[in-house]
Amino acid sequence: MDAWPIGVFASIDAGLGVAWDVIADLKVPTIQLHAPHPDKRNQAAAETFRAQMDEMGVRCTAVFGGFEGESYADIPTVVQTVGLVPEASRASRLKEMMEISDFAKWLDCDTVALHLGFIPHDPSNEVYSEIVAVTQQLCDHCQANGQYLHLETGQETADGLLEFIQQVGRDNLKINFDPANMILYGTGEPIEALQQVGDHVRSVHCKDGTWSDTPGESWGQEVPLGEGDVGMEKYLRTLHAIGYTGPLTIEREIPQDPERQKAEIGQAIELLTGLRESILA
Ligand code: MG
Fold first, then answer.
1. Who is most buried in 4, 64, 199, 220, counting CB within 10 A?
2. pLDDT per residue as tens digits for the range 232-269
3. Which CATH number fits domain 6-280: 3.20.20.150, 1.10.3720.10, 3.40.50.150, 2.40.128.110?
4. This model's pTM is above 0.90
5. Residues with CB under 5 A from ligand 1 (ion)
């Protein structure tokens, strides 16, 4: 595979991603897929999606888990609702992630990813060791399916993420690096963070954002690729420097408006294609 195939974050029926029927129009060779609702996570549905992707000439490079009840309304709500951290839903969501891993296997996809949620910052905290334990269980399930588990960045600092990966101690635990999330959540300067965690990065999002006036307390703003504070050229040059050759997956968290998606993502593809040519030349 050539380095840096372009991709888009896509969805069939759940999560904010490019609508399924827009994928073919965009003519991208790869997608990351938001896991569909539970009723479509069976083997028959997976085989249908796989046949559709073959027809579109698209390869699924990661399946992202997401859950009922998650809300990204503001940072405190994320703390309460997202990922495997909230205790009330932890066991059922772990089971669901394992089902998503099985679904990904039926799609012939070797990577499952998710936002774990806000892991407590202190490793001696009891909840911290509980999150380490569920992540180990999930990694082991993925391992049995021949898969990697990728953690989406944003809710931890680079130091926090490295510490957590070390505590989990599973070779198939990797990072999906999202530079905009570092800005949106106010968890650190993305280029420095990427240099720090680079050895663990196995997939990335190409997303842009602007800093909040009160980083870490209120959201920054997500904006079209190239219009935010990430600095796309510097981002790609840093990916090159750390030896990353995987897909460049464009993520744009706008509601499913096919025309707007096509226009904005078309521009993002153009930007990335141009940068790729000049950097890899
Ligand atoms: Mg992302």
1. 64
2. 999 999 999 999 999 999 998 876 677 888 899 999 99
3. 3.20.20.150
4. yes
5. 178, 205, 251
